[in-house]
Each structure stands twice: as C-alpha cells, then as structure tokens.
C-alpha cells in the first residue's frame, strides 16, 4: 500500500501524536459521520483505525490496519455499523493480525451491558494497576493501557455505571481524553489537567465530540466548546446532556505542542486559531532571532505558517525553496551509482533556480534527532544557498513525553545531548535559533509563563511533568530502560 | 488502496497530463534508478507504472496498477529487473487485469530482437494506421496508440533498425516523446514540434532521459540539455551518443500548459524555472487584473506560486486561507444529516479564523468544468469572506487537447460555453479574471506571441492545433463524438 | 479460495464434527509437528486453525481462517512458533476478522503465567457459568464456551494451577477433551464420560496427544493408549508424566458416531479399526436388510467401507456407480437452460454405463435432512437404474447433539419427522433400511447394548443424553429455540 | 490458496494432461455453462482457466490463475461474459501476472473481426513456423504454440475466414483439438489423427463441444458423437451445423493413455466407458500376472477401477489398504524429529489394521519416475504387509509425449532406464508386472494391435510417434535438450 504521509513522516524525525478520537450521538448515519471525522483527524494516527456503533440494541465494531479511507469508505463497511451512536479512533500501532487486538475502540460486555472506549493519551500507572487486576483474576485481551480502565469499571463495586467509571478514573494517573459508549449513551471526559484536547459540537440534534475542531468542520458540525479539563459530559440516548466534575476544580495544563505541531492549522484550540498561533511564533522568532538574509523558506508543510509569520514580521520575502513530493510512500532501494542523500530528495527537492546564490532563513517547527535538519541544510547548500540560517518555531525538545506522544528516549534527543551552538555545528547551519519558552507563551496569548503553575504542559521543553509517573519510577528503580510500557494510547 | 493525489484530483476538475517517461543506460542499478526517477514523475501519471530492463542478453518487464512506490519499492521487484539499461513509464489507465496490457513500456520480440517503447504524447492518426496494419495481418495486443509504432517498425522493409524506426515515425502524426530500448542500446526522440517535454542528463558515465528535470535531481543526475524538437538521440550500449535529425529543421512548439500546471514547480523547462514562470504569471495577473482586497489566498497546492507572485506584485499579504488535507483517498459515504459540500471539505477546509470578514483574492491555475471553483467560492463565503475575487493563472481553456492530455470533450469546458462575465456568475465570484494569452507569453519570457508561428502549442486556449488530426477529422465526418480514440499515451 | 471438502460437505446434508486437537511436548520442531498433525485432523474442522507454542519463556500464537495447509505450510509461519511444546486446533467457525477471536487455542496471561487451551466438545452449562462470571467483573474476549474454563481457573482460590484447573472442571458439565499448556508443561484430559476422543502417543522422547490416531501416524508417532474418560494427564517440561483421576471412577460413554462417520477410516478408536467397524456395520446391514439387486454402490466417499462390508456379506458385486468430483468448491451460477439438479452433478456424477438397467443397493452412512439422499436416488434413476434400494449404516438420527457436533435443530431431522416407510417415500427409494441400534453395537464389538447403562453415547439415535443440559433446560423454560448457545467447541 | 489435487499430483509422479476445452453456442447463459463444463474438466488442467464469450457484437474475456471455482463461480464473473456463445479452457501454466498472457482462449482482432481459440494438444513445428512469421513482421504476445495458428490465419491470403483457417492448419503438425469463435459462429476441429479427444453434444437448441463427455453430463447436455479425427465442424450463430474434412480421409490414432489415466472414469471415450475399460485392464492384468496374495489394494484414487477388475477376475477381496487425505495442499515444513517419509503420509496413510500380516497386490495406473511407487511399497511394509506385489495397469512408460502431455524428459522415466526386474528391485516390491500392450488393446476392445497401423497413439509405450516432430528434430540437430519449446497447449 502506498501511504502518503505529509504531516508526520513515518521514518521521520518528528514527534508524533498517537491518537485521534471522534464520537457522535443522535445522527442517522453515525458511522458514516465518524468515518469522515476520523479522516479529518488522520494526521493524529495513521496506522490503524476502528469504529464502534450502537443501534439501540447491539454494538457493532470494525477495525483495520491503515488509513480511514482504506477501511471505511465503502458502503458495505458503513452498512456493517448501523445505529445513531458511533465512536472511532485513529492510532499508530504495530501492523499484522494480532495488532488488531489493540486497535480501538476497545469493547467489553460488562454485567451492565456493552462498554466501548476510545482513548487519546497515556496512563502513567497502567502497569502498576494491571499487575493488581491480574492477581485478582482479570484476563487482559490487549497490551493497551486503555484496557486497565475497562477492568477497573468491571470490578468496581459501585451501583451505577457512572459511579463505577468515576471510581475507575480516580485510580488512573496520566493523560486521557476519552469517548465511551454504553447502552445508555455517550460519555466524554478529559483528565483533570486536560493534557490532550477534546472539543464538543453539534449538528442539528446530534452531539459530536472530537480531538480537534477540524473534524467538526468536515462533518458540518458547529463548535460548542471544549470539554473542560477534569470535566465528564454524559449524553443520554435521547440527547440529554449533563456535565460532571468528579475531580473538583483544578487549573488545566493542556499540551502546548498541539499548537506547535500536532494539530491541523485550520483547527481552533483553546479558543485560538492554530494557524495564527504558528504565525505568531514565527513573528516572535523574527524579533528574538533576526537574520541578515534574502529569503524566508519553510520546511514544508509544517513550517509554512511560522515562516509566513517570520517573513511578514521581518519584511523578507517568503518563498517555496523546498518542494515536497506528495507521493512519499515507503523507502526505495537505493541505486549504488546514486549521489548522496537520494532518500531525502525523494521527499523534498530544492528549488535550485530560486535558492542559488541566496542567503536563506529556513523555518522548521522542531528538532528531534537532528538528522533531517542536517540533510535539509545540506540540500540547500548543494542547491547553491550562500548562507543557511535555521530558525525553529519551538524551544529545544529536551525531554520525552509520557502523555501519549511518541518521543525517542531522551538520549536520542539532540537538545538533550548538546547546547544550541553545538547543535548549529551538528546540522551545519550558519546560525541556529529556537523561539524562547516565553516567546512561545506570548504566541499562545499569555502575558508570560506562570512559573509556579504553568498554564500549559511544556514538559518536553522544561522537564516539569505535571503528574506522577508511577510506571516510569518503578522501572528506573529496577534499572530498566526509561520507556513507557503501557505504550498504546 | 489508498491513493492520495494532491496535484491532480482523480474525480477532479483539472486537466491531467497522461504520462511520464524515464530511461537510463550505463548504471549498475538501472531499474532502481528508474523507479526513483518515475517516483519523481508520479504527478504525470498515477494509475499504472512499468519498468523494462536489459542485461545484455534478455529483457525483463514488470508492470503494476497504482503508484511507483506500491509496485517498485521492494528489493524483490528491483531484483527481477537486472541490467545496466532500463526504461519506465507512469500513466493513467483503466484498472484491472486486462488493463495491464496497456501499461508501458510496451515490448515486442521483433526479428531484430527485443524492442521496448515508452511514450508520452498522443498519435493523432493511430486509428487510421492501425486499420491498415490489421488488414495486412498484424495482431494488436493492446488498445494503445503506441503499439502502432511497433508494428510499423516490425513491418518496415529498411535494413537497419534505426532506419525502420525513422520509417515508422514518418508515418505517424501528433505528439510523441519516446524512449526505446533495443539490444543495441537506447533511442530517445521528440516529435518534430517537441510538443511533450524530454530532457537528457548524465550521472557519472550513465546517460539519463526523463520527462522533467526533477527526475534527474532525484536520482542525483546533472541536466545536460533538452532533447530538441525533431531530434533523435541514439546511445549505444557502450555509451556512445549520436544525434539525428530525420525530419529536418523546424521550429518547435512545446506545450505551454506544462508551465501553467503539469510540471513540478522545481523543474526547469525550456531553460526556465517552472516556479519562477508561475510567479511571473501571478505578477502579470496582478497588473492586468488588480483587486481591492485584504488577502491573497491560493487554491492549494497548484495555485501557490502564482499567488505568491500576485501577492508580491500587489503588495497584498499572502495567506493560507484554505488548508488541504493530505489524505484524500476515495470518496466517502455521505451521511444524510451532513451539511452541504462535505466532499469538498474532505479535501479542502477553510481557515475560518483568517478569512472571516475579509475581502479575498483567490488564485487558481485554471478552470475546466468550473464545478470545483464554485464549491471553493462557496466555502470561502461560508467561512465569512466578505468578497471573493477569483484570478486564474491561465487564459480560458476553450479547446480539447489531442496531444496526450486528458481533457473533457469541448462541450463540458466552461470557457467553451460562456464568456468571462457569465463564468463569474456561474462560480458566484464577485469578480473573475484570467491572465491574457499575451501575459502568459510574457511570463514564459517571450516579448510577445508570434501570431503567424506561435512559439508554443497553446491550442487549448487558441484552438490553433499545430498538426493534422486525422482520426478526429474522420470521426467528425462520420458524425461521431469528437473523442480521441487511440486514447492511451 | 477454493475449499474442497470431500468428507463433510459445507452446504451439505451431514452432521459435522466440530473440532480436532493436537499437542506435542519435547520435540525440537513442535509447531511443524502440530501443523502436520492438524492437517491429518482437517476432516474434523475445516474453517479455522490455530497453533500456540512455548519456548520455555514466551508463548507464541498464530491463527487463521481456512485450512491448515493454507495457514501453516510456510517456513515463516512455523518460524513464528518456536519452542519444544505446541498445541493446535482445527474448527468450524464464522469467517472474517472478528471471527479470529474464537479460533483456538485460546490464550490468557494469568497471574500464574500464560495459559493456552484447545477444546473439542461442548460445555452444556457455559451460559449459566458465564453469566455468573461477568457479574463478578470478568470480561470475555470470545463467544466460545471454552473461555468459561479460563475464567474459572483465573478466579479460583486454590494455590496451585492444577488444583485451580480441577476446581474449574468440577463446575463444568458436558463434553470436553482438552489440551492445555502452562509454563510448567502440558495437561490433557477428557470429561468423566469421555464423550469426545483423545489419544496419547510418543515419538522418541516427545509426548503427543491427538483426537485421532491418524494424526500420530502422520507425524510418525506411536500410539501408547487412549486418555481415559475422566483422566487428567500432566506432562512436565522435562517429560515427566503423571496421571490423575479427579472425578473418581466412572464408566465412560464415548460417542458412537465417531465410528459411523466422524473419524478417518484409518484411525483406531477404542482399540478397534474404524474401517473394520464400518465394514462390520455394512455386513450387519446385509443380514438385517438384504436386497434383491445386481450391484452394491457406495455414496462416496464416506459410504465406501460399509458398502464393501455389505457386498462381501451379500455376495453382490461392489462397483463405483457414483463418481465424486474432487474439485467441489463453492456453488456455481446455474445456467437457466440447464437440466435439473446441476448442482448435485457438480459434486457427484452417475457412472451411467455401469448403472443402466441395473437394480442397485445404495449405501450411505446416515440421513440428516434427506435432501441429498433424494437427489442421489434421482440421479441413479436418471442414469437408468431400474431399482434403487437405500441402506443406511447407522440407526435413524432423531435427536440433536449437544456435545460438540453440529446438528440441525430437531425439527429438521428427517427421522424426527417421519417413520422409515415415509422416509423411503420422501427420498423416492424402492426400499430403505437403517442398521438397528443393536446391530451397530455388535459392529463395534459389544454383545449387546446395555440398556441400563449404555456403553456409548448414542443420544442422537436414542435421545438418552448422558449429562445434564443446563443451558438447554433454561432456554426451554423461557420458550426459546432449543439451540445450544455456547456453540463453539 | 489451498489446491487439492486428487487425480494428478502437483509435486507428483504422474503424467499430466495439459488442457481441457469446452464450447457452447445457442444457450442463454453460455458463460455459466462453460464454467460448469470446465469445472467438470478441472482434472485436465488445474493451474489456470479462461472463458471468452460473444454477445453478437463484442467478445468478452476473463482469465485467472487457479481453479475454475475460484475464478468463475461468482455472479459478477459470469455477468462480465454476456452472450449466447462461449468457449473456455483449463490448463497447467506458470503462475503470476505475466503468465496470464498464456491463459487461453487466446484472442485477436483480425481484419475479419474477433477470433478466439482454445487448444488442447501440442503443435510439433510451432518454433519453426514462429521464426518465419516473426521475420515477416508478426509480433507474438504469448509464448504459446497456439498463437502460431492465429498469425497464420491473420496473414493467409484466402478470401474467407474458413479458408484462411484451413490454410493455417495445413501448415501445422502435431496434436490439436480446437474450439474457435468468430463473429459468424463456432468452429471445432481435431487434427487428422484425432490424437486428443473432442466430443459434441446438444442441450435443447444449443450445441456443445467438450474434451470429455463428463462435461456434457454436468451441464445436462446429451452426447451426439465424437468430432472425428480430421473433421472440422462449423456452427453458425443461428445453429446451422456443417461438417468439413479438409484433410481427406485417414485412420485416426487417438491417445490410448486417455483410457488409462487422463479421462474421468465416468466419461465415455471412443464409445466405451472409461471405467469399464479400466476394469478390463485390471482383469487382463489378473490373467497375465496373477499373484498368490490375500488382498487387492488400489493406490487411490486412479488405481481403483483396475483394482476392482483385478479383484473380480482373481477372486481376491478388494480392500482400501491406503487411505488418501483429501486435503493435500502444499508441502509442509518437515519436523526434524519426524520419522521418514512424512510427506507421503500426508497424502496417503496405510490402513494398518487391515494390512498387517497380509500378502497384498497393489494396483496403480502407471510408473513414471518410480519414486512414489517406492514410498508406497515402503509404507505397506511399515504397516506390516508380509508381501507386496505391484501390478501396473499400463505398459512401461518408456518415451516422452510431444502431443500435449507433460512428461519428464526420457532420461527420467524409470522404464527408459531399466527393465522390469530392475524396476521391481528399485521399488522394493516382491514382484512387479505391467499389463502387456496387447492386453491393453484387448481391454479397449480391439482384437489385437495393428502393428502396421496401430489403432491408437501409444508412442509413450512404443516410441512410434505418428507425426513428424520438426522442432524436436531441429533441436536434436543442434545438440540441445530434447524438450518441446512451444510448450503451451
């Protein structure tokens, strides 16, 4: 199969959001709507997709490896998912038959009836909880951290399902935006810090939940509001909506990297246009780190809005100096006679006629391992650029994420291994600058970062993790690799 | 299969180039290089691909439906194609088993040995010639116009293969850029008018031919020059190159639409950067058709360079007001509850936060049927644009192409049915303007269009076809539909 | 896929054994041996197959829809299943992705470590037990009755796994031959009545368990003995064997239909050759129901041994009057011009030259719905047979089986609806006779059927079910269809 | 895919018929009928299948790798083949995409209109003719010998298609039974010696041609007669039948091995029941080569009729001492711990309880390489047989076939390498005997073999080839391997 992956590169040198979720209740073609909505969230997870629907009597599930379009665009696929309530999930996953066990929504027949759950995030004490559940006789069918929640619900002694669900969540630590389905209706909630996003919309009488507003746009729904950090919203089958705050009031700390890179530029997040925030980051960069150059060139496609902001602020012309192929697919066999770096050229090609003899500012969203940046700088030099000034629209990524983002272990993060000057040398740029963390907070609309209680989770930059990391701590006690194990979100 | 098609949209409202070709002689991994080169030409044909190689004794062929990456990225696929000479082809085609017969390179065992041919263009007297050949006992194995050339070669009485090949081409009318392989080496040629492009490069001792320079870039080869209109270049197995001009000297008339839309912006065509020409068209448009507006917005992705040119010339800010999904795939089932135009939203989504309350200039490369333009104007209005001024980076497309471009029949071309004012009304824009044909010629670097003998083939705009159209004329005599029949190129 | 199914016909009019199981401990290529062994048991279940192996540290599983050869003949498939212990299962199942959940061996990670189970039989109180387990928080991943056993083991409070396993079996009623794997070794057992078969063999130092002796033959193993009814045999990883009798001593009642039809004729069952038993049934028939005829003709292939016995006893010549196609595959589109009964001819064709003008005795193993018998009698008449005398090598099948055999509901069994005379009329035979139940007992070597305590389970003929049928009784109380629900075995 | 191959074993030690053909004109569902008919001829060719139909205006073709049921049982497949005339072909072939080029019916658009041809046999001067045609400019699309006929038709100067067709056949030497379709109707013919079979039947107003009568039975048609050797039958679209004898009168020499092995036992060939002929061969064997033994055992399934004949003649009991698995499929990975000959046990298993301590006569149809015979004799001894007497229902196969049967080269035929005594030693039988060639002629109903002019082609036994073998002779002149090259039939 030919998977074209323009935002996040499979072999690539990017952090990757691990999931997108979508739910709808009260629409005649709930599953068709879920398919469209998940398609709009495809950039959040490209390796597997699942949809579960409920027709008032039965739950129906369909899962597949690959893109939404490859699995859910046929009439037959949709016809297998009848009913007016549906929820779905896109994720990164291992491929293959057994991998399907981990594709969400997960589903279980509880004593109270069917229970389906779609999860974006990562539970940081999943291993700890699982060990205890297995001791008591629980049998796990997946290796997903999400399944812990189902078993906690199944074994809770509270009388109502909602109470059992809250009872379960109280034991769970980490990041979770959840969309659940029961025979009574839909439950959507965000963890107390609201680390991963979740929005609520409506389309006629139907209620819609999604990771990003772009999924509402695509199905024609109207944005109502974000699900609040720590909020649990219950929608009954006849459309009655109730909001609960089982964890009390607490300031949220949503992931700031959603603004930098994960979300689509046409989404609205925290009340702000992602596109405008990225332009604002570019403008901050232009002020903080100006460059004496002829052209501003984005690393496509994610660097485009910041590059526009940088260009408009600096007055330098914005130009497409790198052309991205839209047919990326897998790696090709390299001919032995070829010149160096053919593989990066397969994806990006220099617009030589434009770049030749010019001093350029290159704008990218982040640096992870640094290998791609090095190749792109070389490509610009090979195309005749006289100077290459790299500007990055985020602070240095020094720490791994344990909240549902696929990060390399810390020792592979370039910014964890060297300072900015050494990084500039490593990628062979004439100069290198990152936006400051304060500049980033200004771009998202804050006067400044609240040091005592930051408004966002910025742990990947600051190392300040807002929750306990029980499984991590245990593993470090045992001298094991510092990798999250309940790794599926 | 999940075919993502960002430049040209399958269901879409675009003219489509029908083929790309690539050949290499003298490289140790010729087939691997052909695969990479064809991958870079994927935008010229996305439905089928074939590569034929020669190892000094035998010819090897492999063909497939779908993208290059889906068919030729495995080591096994390349290992089936040994040898230091290879040629390949990407094309649009009907899918399915029997469709494979039409996938090029076509191959035949002639009395002189194997003969492989890859063709970009369209032979406008193919039906006429085929009828005569079948009368004499020839059996055709494909429905491709290209096969006519092979049979003409097979039945020619001249003593050498080169003479038989020229003998065949003398009988052929229309557009053809060809790469052929024989046991003696490679032959590349362009029709006397050079309607379709073909360039020549080198990589060490290897000689490379390709439809566009971007394919040279991707394999690491250096551009030597274009194959000239009417030129036939022969490369022997030991690398000796000889140039022939069997048709005498004649001014060429390359396709001007390659500059407007077909070619990749990072290609060099006729000595000019395609990107710079498109920016120049945008600048001409800004002079010829200014607009009182707040923002310049491209219809992504093909409208981007012209929009940059328009913005820089006019001083209006360039902004991404439409975000294109990179996961297009097939059409989804439409939920009955959805709002209108969900399908166009699946591909393009308005950047509402940016557009709301603004007067915008929308830049697109061309209008074919007009249906997409209508939807995009509506999308901008739904997102709150107060005025929408559409500017098109080519003159009105009034005539079908019979030289290897997939055009709807004339009666479906919006510009053949109405004048510009009516078109503006049809697409519901506040204003609509096309660049003039003179502006287009200025943008490609000519002082003016030579009316007596135009420097380019611009038949789709002017109706002035530079060759006879024998099959078309016959069909019109018989009162049949004016469709090209030898339809494969 | 082209599934040829000569013993049991998919669309057919036969009872179907629902499972075959195989296990081996102590062989270097345990999984390869399991694949071969299951292949020899393919007639016991043709729709799905699974193998689980253990390499001393980890369990490995592979499951597939279709035949053993289609799923486990590649070196790669076997290489995915390392270790010296393996167990596998063939079964009938629903096809499709989700169906894979029900393919055995089932596997669970218990607190005591991995636990794999392969089951032939049917648990007749599975629904009752499952309801209770779910109330306590158990989450079922399949719809298989077998999973009940795993949850009972997981939640048992006994200290050792063996005790927990026996504790679980004490709660279970019905038919089960089981092969289980734990990190300590293999456990094989049969229910107290030994309804379904299970034999034990050895090959060098390896211990082998299988449903039938033919699977021992095919892997080159030697038959040691049958696992006794109510016996539980434990084999440790280092090969130590211990036998347990947790249910006390009790006379067994193995399924008599295994001799009539399910087992392969080259298997030894209960110490007797299945082929010889079937010949003996034919001989009994010849004595009980002679016919004045010219030829004895078997309905291929299952009727062949009984027909040989009938022919030898009666002195009539044995001939192949019906030729069976070995390429059955799915149903074809019927041409409208065709004569009647083309579909049965696709599978069976009359040997007209032989049959014409003859009085024939047709021998079949059983009559279920009677539709196939009717067609075959007609085919013989169309081929010119002057008289058709049908003789059946089993008593009338009047009752459904709830012990792991797929039977139609009782109302569809021809023998439940009418007497022998009416059946003869229905199938349009000149005469019809069934072997008596006493004759059947003589053929398997008993002096006579012990009415108080029959030596075999013959419930399908006699209606005397040897266990409680809890789920059935509940359903009948509720007025529901009398179908077994924990239907997977 | 799971290909079960009971008559001819893919890896096996059997001669293989290479093709079966079927045609029907005048039936409303011609393609559905062709699919059923080819299914009944599946034993004549199991690797590829094609059907071409004609609806009065257009020809439609569909080809596939694998069984008829796998390719032509769906309603969609049949719906793609409209019209009242259809012809089809089953064959052995190389698998894979390019292999489809060789799947018949071959089709060409000639000046006279479409021409489809299905061929059973082999043209023994195909290479010679092809070389000449290519010199004149013909382009071959397959490597099939059959395509030579089409080019000869296409380039013939005779005015009518029938004349051109006869003109073509006059140049052709070897074996051919052909079914052709033109816009005027169907042509069926057999080579002057009628080496391969072809029969004619009717079903209502429809005319049917097929390789064997069993295909008529399955579609419900009635046998009219055989197409005579050297006869050409033309059926017009409106059903008018005319018979032509373009080659004059000549005695035919049909293949005698069709009676021994290739044809289905329920076919009538040359007016005789194949089943009865095989029984008669067995009876001849019993007279010519009696054995002092306890049981007669067939090698299933092809040895069964001869074994019945042997048993009835000798008075020894006929018993199934070898049980054949019906799930053969591909070869499995052999476990290293396994006993010898597991692979043959996978297909055949000894019925040990029957064989133990007995002196047996084993009946097989032929010995090719002898490897299978050796394994089966060993299996019988391992099962306890005290003596094994092998009897073969054909004379020793000493010569290769060049008329459409897949034979190993001569040097691999056991009978070409040693005399009967040495063969007995090689296969380790206590005695070995073949039926005499005179005995074989008696069994097919002749008083004796006419030495001057044998009534059958028996070249595989006698070495007397009834036609010139031009390609073979050329190759031997050049010292090349004695293999037929125009190898597809």
From TrEMBL, chains A, B, C, D:
<feature type="active site" description="Nucleophile">
    <location>
        <position position="19"/>
    </location>
</feature>
<feature type="binding site">
    <location>
        <position position="457"/>
    </location>
    <ligand>
        <name>[4Fe-4S] cluster</name>
    </ligand>
</feature>
<keyword id="KW-0411">Iron-sulfur</keyword>
<dbReference type="GO" id="GO:0051539">
    <property type="term" value="F:4 iron, 4 sulfur cluster binding"/>
</dbReference>
<keyword id="KW-0004">4Fe-4S</keyword>
<protein>
    <recommendedName>
        <fullName>Amidophosphoribosyltransferase</fullName>
        <ecNumber>2.4.2.14</ecNumber>
    </recommendedName>
</protein>
<dbReference type="Pfam" id="PF00156">
    <property type="entry name" value="Pribosyltran"/>
</dbReference>
<dbReference type="GO" id="GO:0009113">
    <property type="term" value="P:purine nucleobase biosynthetic process"/>
</dbReference>
<dbReference type="GO" id="GO:0004044">
    <property type="term" value="F:amidophosphoribosyltransferase activity"/>
</dbReference>
<dbReference type="GO" id="GO:0006189">
    <property type="term" value="P:'de novo' IMP biosynthetic process"/>
</dbReference>
<feature type="binding site">
    <location>
        <position position="255"/>
    </location>
    <ligand>
        <name>[4Fe-4S] cluster</name>
    </ligand>
</feature>
<feature type="binding site">
    <location>
        <position position="302"/>
    </location>
    <ligand>
        <name>Mg(2+)</name>
    </ligand>
</feature>
<feature type="binding site">
    <location>
        <position position="364"/>
    </location>
    <ligand>
        <name>Mg(2+)</name>
    </ligand>
</feature>
<keyword id="KW-0328">Glycosyltransferase</keyword>
<dbReference type="GO" id="GO:0000287">
    <property type="term" value="F:magnesium ion binding"/>
</dbReference>
<keyword id="KW-0408">Iron</keyword>
<dbReference type="InterPro" id="IPR005854">
    <property type="entry name" value="PurF"/>
</dbReference>
<comment type="pathway">
    <text>Purine metabolism; IMP biosynthesis via de novo pathway; N(1)-(5-phospho-D-ribosyl)glycinamide from 5-phospho-alpha-D-ribose 1-diphosphate: step 1/2.</text>
</comment>
<keyword id="KW-0808">Transferase</keyword>
<comment type="function">
    <text>Catalyzes the formation of phosphoribosylamine from phosphoribosylpyrophosphate (PRPP) and glutamine.</text>
</comment>
<feature type="binding site">
    <location>
        <position position="401"/>
    </location>
    <ligand>
        <name>[4Fe-4S] cluster</name>
    </ligand>
</feature>
<dbReference type="InterPro" id="IPR029057">
    <property type="entry name" value="PRTase-like"/>
</dbReference>
<comment type="similarity">
    <text>In the C-terminal section; belongs to the purine/pyrimidine phosphoribosyltransferase family.</text>
</comment>
<keyword id="KW-0315">Glutamine amidotransferase</keyword>
<feature type="binding site">
    <location>
        <position position="460"/>
    </location>
    <ligand>
        <name>[4Fe-4S] cluster</name>
    </ligand>
</feature>
<feature type="domain" description="Glutamine amidotransferase type-2">
    <location>
        <begin position="19"/>
        <end position="238"/>
    </location>
</feature>
<dbReference type="InterPro" id="IPR035584">
    <property type="entry name" value="PurF_N"/>
</dbReference>
<dbReference type="InterPro" id="IPR029055">
    <property type="entry name" value="Ntn_hydrolases_N"/>
</dbReference>
<dbReference type="Pfam" id="PF13537">
    <property type="entry name" value="GATase_7"/>
</dbReference>
<feature type="binding site">
    <location>
        <position position="365"/>
    </location>
    <ligand>
        <name>Mg(2+)</name>
    </ligand>
</feature>
<keyword id="KW-0658">Purine biosynthesis</keyword>
<dbReference type="InterPro" id="IPR017932">
    <property type="entry name" value="GATase_2_dom"/>
</dbReference>
<keyword id="KW-0479">Metal-binding</keyword>
<keyword id="KW-0460">Magnesium</keyword>
<dbReference type="InterPro" id="IPR000836">
    <property type="entry name" value="PRTase_dom"/>
</dbReference>
């Amino acid at each position: 199969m030919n998977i074209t992956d323009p935002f996040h590169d499979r072999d690539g040198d990017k952090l990757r959001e691990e999931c997108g979720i979508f739910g709808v209740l009260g629409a005649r073609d709930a599953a068709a709507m879920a398919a469209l909505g998940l398609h709009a969230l495809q950039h959040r997870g490209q390796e597997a997709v699942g949809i579960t629907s409920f027709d008032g009597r039965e739950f129906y599930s369909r899962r597949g490896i690959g893109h939404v379009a490859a699995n859910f665009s046929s009439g037959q696929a949709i016809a297998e998912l009848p009913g007016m309530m549906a929820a779905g999930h896109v994720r990164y996953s291992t491929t293959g038959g057994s991998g399907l066990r981990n594709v969400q929504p997960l589903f279980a027949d509880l004593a109270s009836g069917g229970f389906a759950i779609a999860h974006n995030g990562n539970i940081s004490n999943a291993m700890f909880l699982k060990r205890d559940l297995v001791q008591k006789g629980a049998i796990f069918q997946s290796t997903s951290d999400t399944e812990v929640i189902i078993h906690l619900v199944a074994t809770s002694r509270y009388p109502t399902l909602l109470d059992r669900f809250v009872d379960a969540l109280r034991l769970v630590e980490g990041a979770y935006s959840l969309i659940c389905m029961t025979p009574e209706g839909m439950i959507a909630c965000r963890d107390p810090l609201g680390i991963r996003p979740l929005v609520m919309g409506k389309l006629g009488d139907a209620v819609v939940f999604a990771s990003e507003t772009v999924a509402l746009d695509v199905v024609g729904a109207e944005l109502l509001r974000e699900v609040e950090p720590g909020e649990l919203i219950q929608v009954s089958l006849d459309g009655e909506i109730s909001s609960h705050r089982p964890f009390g009031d607490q300031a949220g700390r949503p992931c700031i990297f959603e603004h930098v890179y994960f979300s689509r530029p046409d989404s609205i997040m925290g009340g702000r246009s992602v596109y405008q925030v990225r332009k604002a980051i570019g403008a901050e960069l232009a002020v903080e780190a100006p460059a004496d150059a002829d052209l501003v060139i984005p690393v496509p496609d994610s660097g485009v809005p910041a590059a526009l902001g940088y260009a408009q602020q600096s007055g330098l012309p914005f130009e497409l100096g790198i052309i991205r192929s839209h047919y990326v697919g897998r790696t090709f066999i390299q001919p032995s006679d070829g010149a160096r770096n053919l593989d990066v050229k397969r994806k990006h090609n220099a617009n030589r006629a434009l770049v030749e003899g010019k001093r350029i500012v290159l704008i990218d969203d982040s640096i992870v391992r640094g290998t791609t940046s090095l190749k792109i700088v070389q490509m610009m030099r090979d195309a005749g650029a006289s100077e290459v000034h790299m500007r990055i629209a985020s602070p240095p990524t020094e720490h791994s994420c344990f909240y549902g983002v696929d990060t390399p272990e810390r020792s592979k993060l370039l910014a964890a291994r060297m300072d900015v000057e050494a990084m500039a040398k490593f990628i062979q740029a004439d100069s290198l600058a990152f936006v400051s963390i304060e500049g980033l907070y200004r771009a998202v609309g804050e006067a400044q970062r609240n040091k005592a209680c930051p408004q966002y989770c910025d742990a990947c930059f600051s190392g300040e993790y807002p929750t306990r990391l029980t499984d991590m701590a245990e593993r470090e006690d045992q001298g094991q690799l510092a990798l999250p194990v309940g790794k599926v979100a």
